[in-house]
UniProtKB/TrEMBL annotation:
EC number: 2.7.13.3
Annotated protein name in UniProt: histidine kinase
Lineage, opening ranks: Bacteria, Bacillati, Actinomycetota, Actinomycetes, Streptosporangiales
Reactions performed catalytically: ATP + protein L-histidine = ADP + protein N-phospho-L-histidine
Species: Actinoallomurus iriomotensis
Domain Signal transduction histidine kinase subgroup 3 dimerisation and phosphoacceptor: 203-268
Molecular function GO labels: ATP binding; phosphorelay sensor kinase activity; protein dimerization activity
Gene Ontology CC, one term: membrane
Enzyme class: transferase
Transmembrane residue ranges: 34-56, 68-85, 91-118, 125-144, 150-171
Taxonomy, superkingdom: Bacteria
UniProt keyword annotations, A-Z: ATP-binding, Kinase, Membrane, Nucleotide-binding, Phosphoprotein, Transferase, Transmembrane, Transmembrane helix, Two-component regulatory system
CDD domains, per the entry: HATPase_UhpB-NarQ-NarX-like (cd16917)
């Protein structure tokens, strides 16, 4: 006996205003609505026909309204069911008036009370229910049943109207629950899509940092060796061949690293674990030797007893810090001695420091400071911190502290 439309705001209290709002409250019927409306019409008509038979052929006939007005009002009540979706409250109040003079309209009246209980707020439902209870009381006064007292008949009216209202409000509550669950599902899906998008952006940022850390080191080596060949064209052939070999090896390694990083972009990783290339703290000696072969003076001091016990993510961040420090020193302070120190222990944290003197006249190698920004973000995400800048002694210092939890 209910439709599929969502609950709508209450009508104003005045009947003319209720009727004036009918056009705005029009709802297009679906196939399910048509089936329900046909069933409601048949139920109301069948109940009305039963009441006509009972009032005319009862064993103990009781007073009842005149037959012709009763049937006319009952038929009109059944027809008004077709407009119950558009004007439920006005029609329900009209049927309360019909109920004073028509017993055949009781079925249609119950359907309208149920409709109001489903689609309107409790205040409006209470008003309509009170109107129908009052109509039943007036009917009992006009046509008293000699077999029962007035109050018993009124009590039965209250019980029937209360049951219809309770059923309708239960249906309304269930619909609101379904709508709420549907809204939560839609909102949860939107939030999930947002989280996926955020994860995608974070993954792209991580891959961009990896690409910068890997390629900046290789390309700076290429720049140093290419600059040496440019400024010393008269160098011995062995040195030229050695520099060319280093350039070729660095270019090959840069292409290999770039291929691996781009492979990460193409792969759809199911977890958030970083992909290759992912060095650790045990790879620092190879990085230092590579920088020394490029002509850098690097002083390497390792104060950690066993670097293999350093967690992978912490060791990776430490490696990237040293790599970026060496790259910056090679770009902005060529020929300067670089000091690299790694210290720490489980429970106290891991300290990484790269220091080099400032050089006034340095070649113009492109740099926008993105590497230091990426290192700062990497250290912050790991729960640590990173500081960089000029010291009082005139050196440029990159200092990072990373958490190293106790086992």
């Amino acid at each position: 006996m209910s439709g599929t439309e969502a609950p709508r705001p209450d009508y104003p209290w005045l009947l003319p205003a209720l009727l004036a709002n009918g056009e705005e409250d029009r709802v297009r019927r679906s196939a399910r609505d048509w089936v329900i409306d046909v069933l409601c019409f048949l139920l109301a008509s069948g109940f009305g026909a039963c009441m006509v038979y009972v009032t005319g052929h009862g064993v103990h006939p009781a007073p009842h309204p005149p037959r012709m007005p009763d049937v006319i009002l009952g038929a009109a009540s059944c027809l008004l069911i077709w407009w119950r979706r558009r004007w439920p409250v006005p029609i329900a109040l009209a049927l309360a008036v019909f109920g004073v003079l028509s017993v055949t309209s009781v079925g249609a009246a119950a359907i309208l009370v149920f409709t109001v209980a489903v689609h309107r707020r409790f205040r409006t439902v209470a008003l309509v229910a009170a109107a129908h209870i009052a109509s039943g009381g007036v009917y009992a006064v006009l046509y008293p049943d000699p077999r029962e007292s007035y109050w018993v008949g009124l009590l039965w009216t209250v019980i029937v109207i209360g049951a219809v209202v309770a059923w309708g409000m239960f249906v309304r509550a269930r619909r609101q629950l379904v709508l709420s669950l549907r809204d939560r599902a839609v909102r949860a899906e939107s939030e999930q899509q947002l989280r996926v998008e955020q994860a995608r952006h974070q993954e792209r940022a991580r891959i961009a940092r990896e690409m910068h850390d890997v390629l900046a080191h290789r390309i700076s080596l290429l720049s140093v060796h290419a600059g040496a060949l440019e400024f010393r064209p008269d160098a011995p052939s062995e040195e030229i061949a050695q520099a060319a070999g280093v350039i070729r090896a660095s270019a090959h390694q840069a292409l290999q690293d770039l291929r691996e990083v781009i492979g990460v972009l193409r792969d759809d990783a199911s977890d958030g674990a970083p992909e290759r290339p992912q060095p650790s703290l045990t790879d620092l000696p190879a990085l230092i030797d590579e920088s020394r072969r490029a002509g850098m003076a690097v002083r390497w001091e390792n104060r950690i007893r066993d670097v293999t016990k350093v967690p992978a993510n912490i060791g990776r961040s430490a490696y990237r810090t040293v790599q970026e420090g060496l790259t910056n020193a090679r770009k902005h302070a060529p020929g300067a001695a670089v000091q690299v120190m790694v210290d720490g222990a489980a429970g106290t944290g891991l300290t990484v420091e790269v220091r080099n003197p400032m050089v006034k006249a340095a070649p113009e190698i492109p740099g926008a400071g993105a590497g230091l920004i990426g290192l700062t973000e990497r250290a912050t995400l790991a729960g640590g911190r990173l500081e960089h800048g000029r010291t009082r002694q005139g050196d440029f210092r990159v200092h990072a502290w990373l958490p190293w939890p106790a086992p």
